[in-house]
Amino acid sequence: MGDDYTVDLVLPKGSLEEPTFILFKEANLEVIRRDREYNPIIDDPRIGRVKILRPQEIPKYIELGYFDIGITGRDWVVESGADVIEVAELPYSKKTKNKVRIVIAVAEDSGINDVKDIKPGSRVTTEYPNITKRYFDNLNIPIQLFFSYGASEAKVPEIMDVVVDLVETGSTLERNRLKIIGEIMTSYTVLIANKNSIKDDSKREEIDDIKTLLLGVVEGRENVYLVMNVPDDKLNEIMNILPAMKKPTISQLYDSGYYSVQTVVSKREINVLIPKLKQSGAEDILELNINKIVR
């Protein structure tokens, strides 16, 4: 680990790499790298050494103390068996905004509709051998386990009988004429920390700061700041239809018979809400993006 007053950080390579860099940039913790180097820098006094590695490797390196904190998938934490602290869930990319699942699937015409119906000795392919072995051991179903280097769904039924795979919607399995018959666990992107680092007062403070900034961006992305002018006689009506994290800020406009109303609203509601506000008498409605929300 680096200086006692900084934390060493490891970030994921691959599909999470670009959205992770965007997240850190929006948190004013920009990852600065040349070409595809694996040792970038973050110009912040709280962050020391930075490394980019495969997410599968990150949990063990955090456990061993090579880094203080890192970002990876919960699936890789469980698969590796790493003894680390989950600091925060970070649903910041399209892939992880909805939690993903590790599922068991078989060919549509296999005649198998439940995991318990899988025959002993069946060939099972997966990128999660440890998770898969524990699961079938608990069911007392002996299997032949084959590690998969990708495209697991393509191997059933000609080469393999069962696939254990990570899915979001399951559409890829369906396109390959496979059906899901069970679920092992859900997964999501996590910020994890070394146990000793968390116990160190100075490092824990830095870790909490970084967590606060990242979560602030995640929450800010999900909401907008809404500003509008409302006639005096329409104020109560507007208040009845206006959702908010807390009560809106209301201030009377000078010598006009209007109030300025300001509040934070979820992006999921905004396109339905704005026409209702206009129909109810709100004027000069402004929708503004939010960089961070820190609770």
UniProtKB/TrEMBL annotation:
GO MF entries: ATP binding; ATP phosphoribosyltransferase activity; magnesium ion binding
Entry keyword Metal-binding: yes
Cofactor(s) listed: Mg(2+)
Family, as annotated: Belongs to the ATP phosphoribosyltransferase family. Long subfamily.
Protein name (database record): ATP phosphoribosyltransferase
HAMAP family: HisG_Long
Coiled-coil regions listed: none
Residues annotated as domain ATP phosphoribosyltransferase catalytic: 54-213
Lineage, uppermost ranks: Archaea, Methanobacteriati, Methanobacteriota, Candidatus Methanoliparia, Candidatus Methanoliparales
Activity regulation information from UniProt: Feedback inhibited by histidine.
NCBIfam families: hisG, HisG_C-term
Record-annotated Histidine biosynthesis HisG C-terminal domain positions: 221-292
Primary location: cytoplasm
EC number(s) reported in the record: 2.4.2.17
Source organism superkingdom: Archaea
Originating species: Methanoliparum thermophilum
Record localization: Cytoplasm
